[in-house]
Structure formats: C-alpha cells, structure tokens
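Researcher: I'd like a candidate sequence for this fold, 237 residues long. If you have to choose between options at a position, lean toward the conservative one.
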C-alpha cells in the first residue's frame, strides 16, 4: 500500500488514493455528496476500530515498561494501522501540514482547501459529520500563507466570498487573514456587493472584512470583531 512506503508516499497520487473520494463532499449533486458521506462514515469507523485495537494493545503491553512497550511489534503495528486509518479519513487526514512548512510543494493543499470549502458550502453536513473547529482554524491560517499562484488565489477568494454571505460561524473571523493575503480589486468588488446585499450577515461580515483591509494596522481580534458587530467601529479609528 502507498501508506506503507513512508515519506515517499506523500505525493499527489498518494493523497488522491487516500482522500480523492472526499471531493464528493462538495459536489452539487446530493447523491454524490451522500455517497461521499457514506464513504466518510466507513473511514471514521475504521479509525475508531483501529484506535480501540491500539488502546487494547497498549493495555496488554503496558507491563513491559514504556521503552519496551513501544518496541513491541504488535503494539507498533496497532499504532501504524491507526495512523493509516486516520490518513484516509476526515478531519484526521488533513491535520498534519507539509514537512518543513513548504506549502508551495505540499500535495495536501487541495485537501486542506477542500475541507474548508466543505464547511463553507455545506456547514450543516460538515458539522454533523466532521466538526473540528481547531482544524478549521489551523487550516485557514495555513492557507493564508499559501503561495499566491492564480489558481490558489482564486480558490481563496471564492472561500472568503462564500463565508461572508452566511451567518457567522465559529472561527470565521480567521478568514480576514485570507482576505488580507489575496486582497485584490476582484475580492473587494465581491465584498462590496455583499456589503450592499439584503442579507444582514453579509452586510456585517463583508463590511468588517473591507474595513480591516483598509486598516492593516488594526489587529483582527475578538474584541475588534465584537465592537464592529455592536456597531461601534467608529470608536476604533
């Protein structure tokens, strides 16, 4: 199996083998999303089973002592199988970033973006099947540092637009990092339209992002966001 090949397995083909099915989670076709959710449920079941086995082996080998325990082949195999199962599931499969932090060559980037797009487009399904606010926050911060290739910039611009058009969700404030990273006339035009829309959430959130794009010296803190929501942005000038 590709997962057993070590570091060399972490290429685009290996990622596709492990998580290529997950693109169905953002499909417009409900049947395609349903099939992907079934796949996800099975992947998560395998993670749980592998974790149970790993815990069982931990208890059985505990009398050996810490050093010998982690050299015991049966326990090491159980740990390896749990790790392999995690890599084929969500949110587990997108927890780890690139070796050395090089996003430009990280084949996992499309899957990090996929996880965020799933949450942005189908928040209820994401919450029901793979809620992980800490993972969402970490991935937003990671992709905000992604290389500004046109395809990546377009995807991130789309994500910001999607998020500002809905009711605020946990960690959405982090998308200001992304907006600042991909700031452009195109993004500002989309945000302007959202800020002029009939949706009160779109007006609030898009207005906030636009306001901070013009004031990069102001930190995107919880207090700043709460003050904006309270309609007191003028006091921050």
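Model: Candidate sequence:
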């Amino acid at each position: 199996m590709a997962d057993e090949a070590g570091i060399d397995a972490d290429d685009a083909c290996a990622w596709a083998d492990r998580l290529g099915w997950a693109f169905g989670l953002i499909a417009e076709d409900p049947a395609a999303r349903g099939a992907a959710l079934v796949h996800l449920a099975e992947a998560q079941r395998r993670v749980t089973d592998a974790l149970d086995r790993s815990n069982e082996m931990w208890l059985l080998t505990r009398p050996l002592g810490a050093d010998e325990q982690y050299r015991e082949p049966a326990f090491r195999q159980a740990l390896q199988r749990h790790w392999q199962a995690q890599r084929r599931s969500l949110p587990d499969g997108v927890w780890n970033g690139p070796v050395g932090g090089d996003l430009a060559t990280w084949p996992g980037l499309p899957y990090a973006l996929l996880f965020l797009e799933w949450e942005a487009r189908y928040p209820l399904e994401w919450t029901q099947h793979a809620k992980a606010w800490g993972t969402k926050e970490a991935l937003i911060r990671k992709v905000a540092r992604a290389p500004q290739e046109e395809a990546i910039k377009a995807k991130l611009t789309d994500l910001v637009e999607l998020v500002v058009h809905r009711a605020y969700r946990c960690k959405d404030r982090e998308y200001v990092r992304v907006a600042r990273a991909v700031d452009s006339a195109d993004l500002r035009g989309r945000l302007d339209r959202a800020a002029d829309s009939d949706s009160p959430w779109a007006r609030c959130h898009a207005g906030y992002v636009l306001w901070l794009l013009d004031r990069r010296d102001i930190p995107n803190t919880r207090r700043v966001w709460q003050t904006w929501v309270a309609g007191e942005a003028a006091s921050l000038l």
